[in-house]
Write a structure and sequence with these properties.
Largest sheet: 6 strands, mixed
Structural class: alpha/beta
Number of strands: 8
Strand order of the largest sheet: 5-2-6-1-8-7
Shape: globular
Helix content: 25-40%
Order of helices and strands: EHEEHHEHEHHEHHHHHEE
């Protein structure tokens, strides 16, 4: 059964500890899906030179943040990896995606997975964000990974459409007009399947403040690239900017 391609807004790592509107929406996207044979996460929190996929037998849980409660650092997501799938992905990319063993699952992945698949029995791999790749290159990366969906592999992009913590720290009285404009423009482009608009996102209203650095936005382009023309698009429908500084809009492309 073909698996969906999801873009999930991970927001704060604290979401790992709580059941809330965001975590409920994440679970709803997979509620009627057959369990995947493996999961590929493309997280905002693994940036590299070149593109890599984790090849660990047992990917470690990485706590890549500071100054959070001790309970968050105690979380472990002890899932298996899949060196054989990592090798297959690298082979099919003609070596453009290299296998790495010096990473694991950062909070962009495990803070979602503890809610989606709490048993931690399904193999999970991460794919990195190449700092030298253009936005169009990330869309093409998603296209190159689309075959995995037909192999029973769930694709998850983890980030936020709007992400500007520094602006929020200086002025926490959001939400902001620029953030709302950008989030709305991206959502409308997705509905219209105008992938050129979301790839050329710097031309959209509010882009410079909404995406001051691209790492949280780029996983969306990978997921859009993995979408099929006949996929159904589902998006969260609560106020997407309820955290002021970032959009918590999540979405799914699936076969219906």
């Amino acid at each position: 059964m073909t698996q969906p391609a999801l873009f999930l807004a991970h927001g704060s790592p604290m979401n790992a500890l709580h059941s809330n509107a965001y975590t409920q929406d994440w679970r709803q996207f997979i509620a009627n899906q057959r369990s995947p044979r493996a999961i590929i996460c493309i997280s905002a929190h693994w940036e590299t030179r070149g593109t890599f996929v984790t090849g660990n037998e047992q990917p470690p849980t990485i706590h890549d943040f500071r100054d959070f409660p001790d309970s968050l650092y105690k979380i472990r997501y002890p899932c298996p990896g899949s060196p054989s799938l990592a090798a297959q992905i690298s082979h099919r990319s003609a070596g453009q995606i290299e296998v790495a063993h010096d990473w694991g699952l950062d909070h962009g992945s495990w803070s979602l997975l503890v809610h989606l698949f709490p048993e931690a029995r399904i193999p999970v791999l991460q794919i990195s964000l190449d700092r030298d790749l253009s936005p169009a290159g990330f869309f093409e990366l998603g296209q190159s990974l689309s075959w995995l969906r037909d192999e029973g592999v769930l694709l998850i992009g983890s980030g936020n459409i709007v992400h500007n913590i520094q602006r929020w720290l200086h002025n926490p009285n959001g939400p902001y007009d620029w953030a709302q404009s950008f989030d709305k423009a991206v959502a409308e482009a997705l509905v219209q399947r105008n992938f050129q608009a979301i790839t050329n996102y710097s031309t959209l209203p509010g882009a410079s403040l909404s995406v001051p650095s691209a790492e949280h936005y780029l996983p969306l382009l990978c997921i859009a690239g993995a979408a099929r023309p006949d996929d159904r698009l589902s998006m969260t429908d609560y106020p997407p900017l309820s955290l002021e500084h970032c959009s918590m809009r999540s979405l799914s492309f699936d076969t219906g």
